[in-house]
């Protein structure tokens, strides 16, 4: 137990040092990152999404996030450099044992993961996240959950950005020690709404709904 506590302390300390150095060396407090994973799924989807979301957050909720998109491998120690991670795609996802351990340590240490189903991701990512937390399952969050009521109110939960199968969007959460560590947006496709308008030709009101919900997720993660 003592060894585990010391290891966890080193992780948290390393993250604190990174944030401090980032603040000292640039005008931005930190970066957020897109997760690169194995299995053949297109982890690289939605190339303009994160920069647009960050710019929206910096303007609307006064964050100070570097808008340059970072990409990090799920098994890399650099995962701990980013307090908020975004994972998206359409297809297969496979985590190795080492990647499972790395992601678990990251989430246990205070990191936050947003999984955004770009369509077809659910059966693969739920299986892999079960490896990360074998004793926990995704649960659907009620519309009263604070993640829907940060700067922007979403009284009916996630906005519907793309039709996909025509199902109602759902927001699922994965808890660790009674704390939300992972949010899974399903049948919504927020990332497509964050992209440049010319990419998917989403009407601007729809894009704004996606960006506002994304800002809520970021704001919630940093205020837990």
Your description of this structure?
This protein has 224 residues and is α/β, with parallel strands linked by helices. The chain has one domain: Domain of unknown function DUF4159 (Rossmann fold, 3-Layer(aba) Sandwich), CATH 3.40.50. Helix content is 39%, strand content 17%. It has seven helices and seven strands. Strands 2-1-3-4-7-6-5 form a seven-stranded mixed β-sheet. Helix 2 packs across helix 7. The N terminus is likely disordered.
What is the averaged pLDDT score?
A: 89
How many strands?
Answer: 7
Q: What is the alpha-carbon Rg in Å?
A: 17 Å
How many domains is the backbone divided into?
1
Please tell me the CATH architecture by its name: 3-Layer(aba) Sandwich
Give me the side-by-side strand order of the main sheet: 2-1-3-4-7-6-5
List the helices and strands and how they pair.
Blueprint: H1 2-25, E1 33-36, H2 49-60, E2 70-73, E3 84-89, H3 97-108, E4 112-117, H4 122-132, E5 139-140, E6 170-176, E7 179-186, H5 190-194, H6 197-200, H7 204-222
Parallel strand pairs: 1-2, 1-3, 3-4, 4-7
Antiparallel strand pairs: 5-6, 6-7
Helix pairs in contact: 2-7, 3-4
């Amino acid at each position: 137990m003592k060894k585990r506590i010391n290891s966890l302390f080193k992780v948290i300390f390393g993250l604190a040092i990174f944030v401090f150095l980032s603040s000292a060396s640039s005008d931005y407090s930190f970066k957020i990152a897109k997760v690169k994973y194995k299995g053949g799924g297109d982890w690289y989807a939605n190339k303009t999404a994160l920069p647009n979301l960050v710019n929206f957050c910096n303007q609307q909720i006064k964050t100070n996030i570097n808008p340059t998109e970072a990409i990090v491998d799920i098994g890399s120690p650099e995962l701990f450099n980013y307090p908020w991670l975004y994972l998206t795609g359409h297809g297969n996802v496979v985590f190795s044992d080492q990647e499972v351990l790395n992601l678990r340590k990251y989430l246990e240490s205070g990191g936050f993961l947003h999984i955004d189903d770009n369509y077809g991701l659910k059966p693969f990512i739920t299986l892999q996240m079960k490896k990360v937390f074998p004793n926990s399952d995704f649960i659907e969050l009620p519309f009263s959950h604070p993640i829907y009521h940060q700067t922007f109110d979403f009284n009916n939960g996630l906005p519907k950005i793309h039709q996909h199968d025509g199902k109602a969007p759902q927001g699922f959460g994965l808890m660790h020690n009674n704390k939300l560590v992972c949010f899974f947006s399903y049948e919504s496709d927020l990332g497509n709404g964050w992209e440049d308008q010319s990419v998917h030709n989403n009407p601007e009101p729809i894009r704004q709904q996606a960006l506002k919900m994304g800002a809520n997720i970021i704001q919630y993660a940093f205020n837990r």
